[in-house]
Amino acid sequence: MKPVAVKPTITFEDFQKLDIRVGTIERVEEIEGSRSLMRLKVDFGDHQRTILAGIKGERENPTEIEGRQALFVVNLEPKKMMGELSEGMLFDIGYADGIKPVLAVPEAEVPAGSRAG
Q: Which has the least CB within 10 A, 6, 44, 76, 104?
């Protein structure tokens, strides 16, 4: 893989607008009729969210990530996909570069809802 060029510089204030948090993936469920999306039920400590992620074709068994912690963007505008509302975005590494994606995870378990940055 050859890395692509770095995106244009943003201000620190722009970066601070992102709310990136650790969530614990409690359940991974099929979405009827979707070839790529899976429904993630994610615990953020003080609340749970449903986040849709295109991981179905990326893993032999998408449910293998149940119980794992990962990074999520939690302040994106909710988006309707396949008739369901997604309340955030799963961070992964590799998809944009065409390699097998992996989760962006904390190196040790931390409380759900912990902020990155």
A: 6
- What is the span of the domain harbouring residue 41? 16-103
0.90 exceeded by the pTM?
yes
pLDDT at 1: 85
User: Whole-angstrom Cα distance, residue 89 to residue 96?
Assistant: 14
Q: For residue 4, is it within any domain?
A: no
Tokens of 55: 């991981």
Q: How far apart are CA 48 and CA 14, in angstroms?
A: 26
How many structural domains are present in the chain?
1
Q: Please give the backbone phi and psi of residue 44, each rounded to the nearest 5 degrees, phi first.
A: -110, 25
pLDDT tens column, 63-84: 999 999 999 999 999 999 999 9
Do the domain assignments include residue 3? no
If one counts every other C-beta atom within 10 angstroms of the C-beta of residue 78, the result is 11
- Kindly state the average pLDDT of the residues 95-113: 93
